[in-house]
Amino acid sequence: MKKGKIVIIAAALLIVAGIGIIVGLIESDYVSEVYGGELYFFNSEMSGIESEVREIKYHNSQELAENVVEELGKGPKDRRLAGIIEKKTRLISITGVETGSVVVNFSREFLSGNNTKDLLSVYAVVKSLCALRSISSVKVVIEGRDIYTDDGSIIGYLSDRDINLPTDTYTSEMRDVILYFPSKEGSKLQREVRTIKVTDQQPIAQYIINELIKGPENESMTASLNSGTVLLGVETSDNICFVNFKANFLDKNSGSADKEKMTIYSIVDSLTELETIDRVQFLMDGKKVSSFGNINIGSMFGRDESIIG
Q: Which residues is 293 bridged to in the sheet?
């Protein structure tokens, strides 16, 4: 009799535990939110990317970003479209969701060896993630390393506005840009004309700053920016160019008052060579900061001809 009671009690406990687990799962699913947004995949000709609406459950912005990439890896449901991520590709990490400037780190299988295809795959990842409210720009890397285009340029942070749709095609041209680097004496800026390949996928101002980060080609000049400087994005409005750097810009490029001045006006004088830019506003992780060493970097900067040798 006692044995029978024990069996009944044990069974009851199991039932209660089972109900608890089921309720927990239901509640967990209930509190999750559903994102209905566009994911991008190759079109039928593999010549561009097209969107497909997908519903994705999530509990927080980090999980949503990860789930978006996971869904991209699964491929499209529309048979007219094709997947943009190779099946063996692993998502190593997604960082920066909390700041809005995201780095997506894939395993090396992400690259197919076809530069055009790989570039479109990057664009698809960027467009899919930038559709999220919490994300403004995305950089795709392979096992922590930059991806390069066929002309040797780094594919840096891209925003939704940098990628033109619905044509999904881009044109390129060779263009002369004027850059300013400090002389070896460090007291004046010197002019260097550089011919670079540009496309309609990035604003010309972004190309100019990336060229400054590469450093001068002329041996009589020195670099104005540390090679580890990271540009998050560039946007021009009403002739004001908003240049958004990663916050470590301040540490990587600080030094003497003269060095800091050369750094600032190397950027400002190079950008104001463009007819569309009169002034430059510096941002660090999307925010104004008050000081860069000895310089008040919170205000806008106009062109300074007196510093040009």
A: none
Number of C-alpha atoms within 13 angstroms, CB side, residue 307? 23
Q: What are 258's two structure tokens? A: 């003269």
Q: Which of 192, 178, 208, 182 is nearest to 262 (CA)?
A: 182
Output Rg (C-alpha) for the chain, integer angstroms. 25
- Angstrom distances, CA of residue 101 to CA of 119, 200, 236: 19, 21, 18
Q: Long-range contacts: 56-59, Cβ < 8 Å, 24+?
A: 57/29, 57/32, 57/33, 58/32, 58/33, 58/34, 59/31, 59/32, 59/33
The residue behind tokens 């980060």 is: 213
In single-letter form, the type of residue at position 241 comes to: C
| pTM assigned to the model | 0.54
Per-residue pLDDT of the chain (309 residues; tens, 9 = 90+): 455 556 566 566 666 566 656 555 545 454 578 888 889 999 888 888 988 888 899 999 999 999 999 999 999 998 889 999 988 999 999 999 999 999 999 999 999 988 888 999 999 999 999 999 899 999 999 999 999 887 677 899 998 878 866 544 556 688 999 999 999 887 899 999 999 888 766 789 989 999 999 999 999 999 999 988 888 888 898 899 999 998 889 989 988 889 999 999 999 999 999 999 999 999 998 889 988 988 999 999 999 999 998
Do residues 247 and 285 make contact, with C-beta atoms less than 8 angstroms apart? yes
- Distances, alpha carbon 258 to alpha carbons 19, 181, 185, 253, 263, in Å: 71, 13, 11, 12, 9
Q: Are strands 189-199 and 231-237 parallel, antiparallel or unpaired?
A: unpaired
